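Please check what follows.
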Amino acid sequence: MPALLDPPLASRDFPAVTRAAPAWLQVNLGRRCNQACRHCHVDASPTRTEMASDAVIDGVLAALEANPAFTLLDITGGAPELHPRFRDLVRGARALGREVIDRCNLTILFEPGHEDLAEFLAEQRVHVVSSLPCYQEDNVDKQRGRGVFERSIQGIRRLNSLGYGRGQGHVLDLVYNPVGAHLPPDQPGLEADYKRRLRDDHGLVFDALLTITNMPIARFLADLRRQGRADEYQQLLLDSFNPATLDGLMCRHLISVGWQGRLFDCDFNQMLDIPVPGTRRTIFELGDGTGWAGLPIATAPHCFGCTAGAGSSCGGALD
């Protein structure tokens, strides 16, 4: 289990939150990745072997078919494209008329065996969401590894050449998360800076920038502890609590599926092994998806990360 929060954050209760009707099914295909980023809450790396089984993949597709209310399938990892049935899952979901998001790290587009991945994503009209924590090379490489910035720029260029980010129905969003122990800046202002710098410096375009707060769990928390800044960061989240973000929390509209098929309220709870309350605990027990609205959401002190400042979700700022 990933590292947990330290006091004083653990001593303060998070407000009670209940679900709306879920419309967003998110599935983590495993922990294997071609990168090992310092901020990664999944602890993903090239040495991880956890991978969703065929039964879980088939269970996700069966859940989509049985639940028309799930309009969006959000595929994460690790690098989800490394799963041997990633393309089966995408094709199956698209055949059912669902929007598909691929949480793509951009560098995977150049890994052996994935040379045609960008073309596949464009063919299936997959919504690509990609991390680019800064428009400056040093900051990106510091967080994600040497050479990652340049390969990420090449990845955006490859996607642009296929129509992504150009208003042609191929959506490319970028994700910013802070390099250090602070909250993201104003999302609209930072998006304008990103668009200007990527256009002027590299001739690149994208649709939207999503700002996401680093969660004080797993690898990022371990890094904070090494710097002696864990308490400082946790207090920052507490002091920055914004109640206006509660209604928009992603967990209110999302069901998260782990690589073993277990159900969680969000990807962060999944990494901390905090299951959904109640008796429906796996994708195979999801049923027709009704009866979720009004149910309680399992919360813990790390949830203050999603409500700090302008808020944070897989879809960016909340307020």
About this structure: The chain is about 30% helix and 10% strand. The chain has one domain: 9-306.
